Amino acid sequence: MLPDSPTLEQYLQAADDIALRGVTVLSAAPDPDALEAARVQFLGDRRGEILALQKALGTLPPEQRREAGRAFNDAKTRLTRALDERRTTLSRGAAKSLQLDLTMPGRHRWIGGKHPVTLVIDEIVGIFRELGFTVALGPETESEWYNFGALNFPADHPAMDLHDTLYIGDGALLRTHTSPVQVRTLQRYAPPIRILAPGTVFRRDPFDASHAPAFAQIEGLSVDEGISFVDLKATLTHFAQRFFGATRTRFRPSFFPFTEPSAEMDVECRLCAGRGCSACKGTGWMEILGSGMVHPAVLEAAGLDSERYTGWAFGMGPARIAMQRYDLPDIRILYDSDVRFLEQVAE
Ligand code: DAH
After folding, report:
1. Do 126 and 89 sit in the same domain of this protein?
2. Is 311 in the pocket of ligand 1 (CB under 6 A)?
3. What helix, strand, coil percent values describe the chain, rounded to 5?
4. Dist CA 249 CA 241 (whole Å)
5. Among 179, 195, 202, 252, which residue has the most ligand 1 atoms within 8 Å of its CB, making it the best to mutate?
6. Among residues 97, 131, 148, which one ends one of the domains?
7. What pTM was estimated for this model as a whole?
8. pLDDT at residue 1 tops 70
């Protein structure tokens, strides 16, 4: 131990002694707790032996302090190094006792991916976003008015029949399409409007190879002054080229209560390049979407002046598109959550 007023000789001796004893104890600490106790004993900030040594430095005559200070630093370095080395050795031992073999290759971690229908929706939304469209959402439970009335369905339209629509009472139903989002958007925002509304819709359909009672749709709507059928055709053709890489598209006259005129868009079958195959049922064309100029009655129902504003809209089923894209024979594969299928297409 160090006397109260040590000579230089005694100081140097004490420094070496502390370092020797400390290194011995630290290096022999059997576990992290013992190592910590040894650290406190020798290197502790409050009562560590190294602290006593540091304090004693001040009692030496100034001309001896340089040499004594060197001895102090040397002792401290030896102790700190012994502490670090022991710490490393102990933690390596802990890893070994867990039977960790750090040379083994990493274990494959299973990471989920996006569902094929989500991939299709994201890609479609991405293309329209570039054209200035925004995503709009609406409720899955709707009133009869938003789902049918405001969309110009006559009161006795067969789609309103119990066989197609799931009613949940009090004039409420599960929306049968995403078109009601058109009306909700037109009520809330002033034109110009350009929205895409993806979402789930519900129908009283059997769950078979080509039908599901709950499925995704994407609605599109563009309303402003001076919008014409040219805008509809140009935008949807651009979309088909971007999404399908389609060389050819065609518009066929159709009917929907909420559009006039109405048209369905087909793209040339990608599998047979229009020659006709089983995927396109020999026609050479794939049906992609329904579309049309927004019926004046719909604009009026939403509170817009149909003399001033016009617009066009479309609706499509991303599940159908996913079936074409991934060549699926049965829509139920998209609902099975079978990882063997999903991990083939997930991105
Ligand atoms: N709502 C239609 C359906 O569910 C799809 C549709 C067709 C939407 C034409 C539209 C449209 O916006 O213009 O079958």
Report:
1. no
2. no
3. 45, 20, 35
4. 9
5. 179
6. 97
7. 0.70
8. no
